[in-house]
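User: Let's play a game. I give you a shape written as tokens, and you guess the letters that built it. Ready? Here's round one.
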């Protein structure tokens, strides 16, 4: 910053949580919806082919856009979205992320990872959750429960527990080996934990999801007879059936409100 004091990515993440009224410890409910409605960021989801980039961040005429590869697992998409939001909040400019890796050495990438980790699973949140779960030690099952509660991967949850000094280096190494051996797969189902339902998990079947603001504008134009249903469907990358489903869903939401 201008005063010569370096601001950590973690403190920028905590500031972003405050700006979005997320509190200091809890999970981020529906990160995509929260970023679009609260942070003015437009999110595009696209099912990219094998080897496509994980995500990207850019600004067009001062409007921030984030692209997330929807072919990846939902927990990875959430982290990618938080990582790209980190690039936005940290003022990194345009970024194309081919992959997003924990051990990133590039300073911007490392900073965006640290931002995303603290944004999605704050150290204070790890402390509070572990204290309330009454788990004496961080077992594989506890790790799965922690990851599930915050909608992150088990690997992210493990690094956060380590950052919170809630697991020794030796125990963390042991858990990491078990994660590498995929021992955590199926544990969530066995524990009867249900996955978080949010805009990201619900958008799974769409080839492309355009930002909410753009969708609203297109549907308003359709409603006022400025464009045809075929044009609306084409702009929103939906089939005619998909467009009707979207209109029906919005109609239902309006009735419920």
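Assistant: Ready! My guess for every position:
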């Amino acid at each position: 910053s201008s005063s010569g004091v370096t601001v950590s990515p973690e403190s920028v993440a905590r500031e972003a949580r405050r700006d979005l009224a997320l509190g200091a410890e809890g999970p981020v409910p529906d990160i995509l919806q929260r970023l679009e409605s609260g942070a003015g960021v437009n999110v595009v989801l696209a099912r990219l082919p094998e080897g496509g980039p994980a995500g990207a961040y850019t600004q067009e005429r001062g409007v921030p856009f984030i692209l997330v590869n929807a072919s990846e697992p939902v927990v990875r998409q959430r982290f990618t979205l938080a990582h790209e939001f980190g690039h936005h909040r940290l003022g990194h400019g345009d970024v194309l992320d081919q992959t997003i890796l924990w051990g990133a050495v590039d300073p911007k990438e490392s900073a965006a990872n640290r931002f995303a980790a603290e944004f999605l699973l704050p150290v204070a949140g790890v402390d509070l959750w572990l204290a309330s779960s009454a788990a004496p030690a961080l077992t594989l099952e506890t790790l799965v429960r922690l990851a599930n509660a915050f909608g992150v991967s088990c690997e992210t949850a493990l690094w956060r527990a380590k950052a919170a000094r809630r697991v020794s280096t030796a125990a963390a190494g042991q858990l990491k080996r078990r994660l590498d051996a995929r021992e955590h797969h199926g544990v969530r189902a066995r524990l009867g934990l249900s996955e978080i339902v949010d805009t990201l998990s619900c958008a799974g079947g769409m080839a492309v999801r355009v930002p909410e603001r753009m969708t609203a504008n297109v549907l308003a134009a359709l409603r006022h007879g400025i464009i045809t249903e075929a044009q609306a469907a084409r702009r929103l990358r939906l089939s005619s059936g998909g467009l009707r489903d979207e209109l029906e869903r919005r109609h239902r939401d309006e009735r419920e409100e």
